[in-house]
Amino acid sequence: MPWNCPSCGGTTELGYNVCRKCGAARPGSDPDQVAVQLVMPMTTTPTFETHTIEAYHGPVFGETIYGANVLRDISAAFTDVVGGRSGAYEKVLIRGRNMAMSEMSERATQLGANAVVGIRFDYSTVGRTMLMICSSGTAVTVTPRQTGHTG
User: Fold this and answer.
1) What is the pLDDT of residues 92-139, one digit of tens each?
2) Which of 8, 36, 140, 143 lies at 20 to 30 Å from 84 by C-alpha?
3) Per its UniProt record, what PANTHER family does this chain match (predicted)?
4) Strands 51-67 and 130-144
5) What are the DSSP calls for 17-46, one per residue?
6) 115 and 98 inside one domain
7) Same domain for 46 and 111?
8) CA-CA distance, 90 to 76, in Å (whole number)?
9) Nearest to 2 by CA among 23, 22, 26
10) How far apart, in Å, do the first and last CA atoms of the chain sit?
């Protein structure tokens, strides 16, 4: 189902986090507007040192697609010529990664999990101007390990 941009009124397909017409962020999808809070433990490793895995619920995924806009492209092209980092694109990557992790967390919760292990990220382009960020991991139920203090 498409969504309507509050900035310009344009219509964009669901799955895109920016308006295809004006480049404005979809409401609720931009971490600069709405803080993404990950309330469950998540790790790229297959286990937690601080928790014991009690049950495996299966794979979970998070996907997001961001469009590049003209100003960001011009800035990146200039940075490419003179060298340095492209802060505009880095910001898009951070937003996309956070959104993908947030979606993965929500899907893990729907499966009854309280953590995700083995997280991986995949970055690719869709068409010539869209960046797709996907995350995957395994939804698990964990319990904190008891630490014995002696002394």
Assistant:
1) 778 888 889 989 999 999 999 999 999 999 998 887 778 889 999 999
2) 36
3) UPF0145 PROTEIN YBJQ
4) antiparallel
5) SB-TTT-PBPTTT-TTTS-----S-B-SSS
6) yes
7) yes
8) 10
9) 26
10) 61
Handedness of CA 10, 16, 22, 24 (dihedral sign): positive
Contacts of 20 (CB under 8 A, 6+ apart): 10, 12, 13, 67
Contacts of 138 (CB under 8 A, 6+ apart): 46, 56, 57, 58, 59, 60, 116, 117, 118
In a domain, 84, yes or no: yes
Please tell me the total count of domains within the chain: 2
d(CA 41, CA 140): 10
**12-23 pLDDT tens trace:** 765 556 666 666
Tokens 């939804």, located at residue = 139
Both structure tokens of 33: 């507007």
| E strand or H helix that includes residue 102 | helix 87-110
